[in-house]
Write a structure and sequence with these properties.
The structure holds 2 protein chains of 2 kinds. Chain A is mainly beta. In chain A, about 0% of the residues lie in helices and about 55% in strands. In chain A, the strands form 2 sheets. In chain A, strands 2, 4, 5, 6, 9, 10 and 11 form a 7-stranded mixed sheet that branches. By secondary structure, chain B is mainly beta. Chain B contains no helices and 11 strands. The chains are: A mainly beta, B mainly beta. At the A-B interface, strand 5, strand 9 and strand 10 of A face strand 4 and strand 5 of B.
Chain lengths: ~110, ~110
């Protein structure tokens, strides 16, 4: 199974809402990632988790809060977002983060902030 | 900072042609490169990868070439099909599994 799943597929939220994005993989990967992708742009790295610990935060605003409950799950908690945060949020996983390994991407969550 | 770039934003080809998508990178310390295909509404899909100790790698209908001297990466797709229409991204990994993506090339295949 080389699949990364993400829920929900689409999310519309107001600027005062709190919501969460979920990501799951069952490949035994120990590194998981959140990316943000705007239309017609490449994915931009937000966070890296390695062995369930946050290893990289690419200066992401605190209104985005990642969480890794276990080695298979990755969440992204959203609070007080801005309209410019509307984007495709991609989750990825790889074998580890200590070397160069292929990252497998999920289908993404299309987020619209109104 | 250092980044990966692409020469052509859009490439239009006829079905059956061979396609070549190019990518320039600037980080000489990068040791692993990946090509991803992203179809509309989907996440990036792995196509092929290459490590810096190689200059060529072949897959099914795809070939990646790496020229470290000029820091250039290319993806060749043989006998391009309409299903190959997508945005193609090159990405480089400097050894810490943080991928830096190029700007992307839209490949349009006409029947």
């Amino acid at each position: 199974d080389t699949e990364v799943t993400q829920t929900p597929k689409h999310l519309v939220m107001g600027m005062t809402n709190k919501k969460s994005l979920k990501c799951e993989q069952h490949m035994g990967h120990r590194a998981m990632y959140w990316y943000k992708q705007k239309a017609k742009k490449p994915p931009e790295l937000m966070f890296v988790y390695s062995y369930e610990k946050l290893s990289i935060n690419e200066s992401v605003p605190s209104r985005f809060s990642p969480e890794c409950p276990n080695s298979s799950l990755l969440n992204l908690h959203l609070h007080a977002l801005q309209p410019e945060d509307s984007a495709l949020y991609l989750c990825a996983s790889s074998q580890t983060s200590g070397g160069s390994y292929e990252q497998y991407f999920g289908p993404g969550t299309r987020l619209t902030v109104t | 900072g250092e980044s990966v770039g692409l020469h052509l934003p859009t490439l239009s080809v006829q079905e059956g042609d061979n396609s070549i998508i190019n990518c320039a990178y600037s980080n000489s310390a990068s040791d692993y490169f990946i090509w991803y295909k992203q179809e509309s509404g989907k996440g990036p899909q792995f196509i092929i990868d290459i490590r810096s100790n190689m200059d060529k790698r072949q897959g099914q209908r795809v070939t990646v070439l790496l020229n470290k001297t000029v820091k250039h990466l290319s993806l060749q797709i043989a006998a391009t099909q309409p299903g190959d229409s997508a945005v193609y991204f090159c990405a480089e990994d400097n050894g810490y599994s943080t991928l830096t993506f190029g700007k992307g090339t839209m490949l349009l295949v006409s029947p």
